[in-house]
Request: fold
Amino acid sequence: MRAILLVISIFLLLPPPASAAPTLNDLEVRLRVLEQREDRQDAENQRTREQAKAAAKSEADGVKDTLSAQVQGLKDNFNLLVGIGGVVVTLLIAFGTLGGLWTSRKARYEAQEEARKGLKEIEKSLVDDAKRDLQTVQQSLEAELKSAADALMTELKSTLDTAKKQADEIDDMWRNMPQSVAAGQQPQLSPELKAEAAELQKTNAPPHALSPRNLLVLAIGELEAGRHTKAARYLQALVEKRPNDAVAWLWLARVRFEQRLFDESLDCAERAIEAARADGDRKTEANAYLWKGDVLCQQGDWIGAGDAYEKGRALWAELVEQQPDNADFCRGLAVAWSDIGDFYLGRGNVAEAWKAFENYRALMAGLVGQQPDNAAFRRNLAVAWGKLGDLCLDRGSVAGAREAFEQCRSLMAGLVERQPVNADFRHNLAVAWCAIGDLRLNQGSVAEAFEAFEEYRSSMAGLMEQQPDNAGFRRDLAVAWSRVGDLHLDQGRVAEAREAYETDRKLMVMLVEQQPDNIDFRRNLTVVLRRCGLVASLEGALVEAKGLLENSQGIMDELIAADPEKPLYLRDKAWLAGVWGDWHNQSGHGDDARRCWRDAVEGFDALELRGTLDWMGRRGLAEYRRKLDGDGAQAAETERVLVEQD
Reply:
């Protein structure tokens, strides 16, 4: 019984078994059955003892009867002998009586011993049977309990392994996100993590009540969707919980940058640098310097920005020097050169931009040579070729642009062929078609340009159907409609141009409403407002045109105030001045029209002298020179440089 109690105690102390193992109710039922069997066995043992006692009593009674008969016989003999009076006979009878008494005692003792032995054997047999039954039950219980415990431990281990794998997965993604985004890959949650983020959002829990892992999942999800304000809430809570997390500070710097909170963004970038340096994380430190450069550019601190970019590049170069075979470090250095190229190009230093982009291309070509099946490396190489192609096109090198764009298109077409469902690859291929369309338009091949832009537009429309919430895809679809509208307008199809521009405008208004702090979206909106204003002027809708142009002017003034030396903004400003001239011309104010056209030409010329006017700006320069006093000589010269003969 003590063994059974011990088994029950052990069972109660163990954790609940897994669903596949016996339940507690099952084991309790089995114990009750065993207890009932034990009760029945005890009853049977009691009956056996009583039967043995009855048999022993019956045997003893028989012996007693025999002895009584013998005693009575002795009494009769004694009386007979007394009657005879023989002394000798009397003595013999006495000895006989004593012998009978001894014999009866011996018989009774032997009967009792026999009964006792029988009882002991019965009891021993019952105890042995009970022990065997108990041992069998104990072994069965131990096996079942062990099986339940093993199943529970297996389930717990599986759960822990899954949790660790998920934690490692999101942590790795989190650590590699800054470099991946710098290389052109947007943050993206797996379907499982997206579902987790959706469930977390349903709880409406405040950020400070969430775990760091939950904050990571939600922050990445908001970054992927481009919702920077919500992402900032989660990231702010994350850095409060993990103040030494350099990557968290780095992402908060980026979000504040998108919100145009440049002072806060710079502070976050500095904290990221300090945390990474303290942790010995030179990779994150290098990325933080590159992002610091982006912030300083927005603040107009070109010297500080150049210094930050160079420090980031130097850190990557040191890592590559220490581990020249580390592909991750080599790609980091390549991306740093890409950022530096964009910086120099934005400042009008074409020569340095070219060298930086060429370094970017060379490093990525080397990585592709080492790992030809690495899709990410091939994608980065395609991007590098695209940057060089844009620079060639802006510099008037048609042959160089054609080669670069074809390399870009070929690489991306190969990636799409291998992974046709990869949205990023399809997007990059669509952008390559846009570049080819720009090249053909620059060469005057209108039909071929239209074909390329239609490929761009249809590809982006297909991507938008698959990912309707992707802001980057929506923006590129808007750009595609803008390109199609430009071609219609060049061919005099004003109504078709208006339809294309209106589609562009609806898409951009939606994006700016969703992300009012996104500078690129606001700049795209001011461009399409200008185009819609031009078409409205050509159609005679002068009131509508004036409202559209005023809206464009207001946004443009804000952008230039924030970055007064950015060539792209200055080019757009010159073009807007030219469109205002078109409006005045349609309104019958010739002098005002000529004044605006002159402002446009002067703005384009200033950029050309600095070497920062792109191919599209040259098209505007040629157009508005033609409209000024019939200055055919200068207009012809401008048109000549648009196309360089192979």
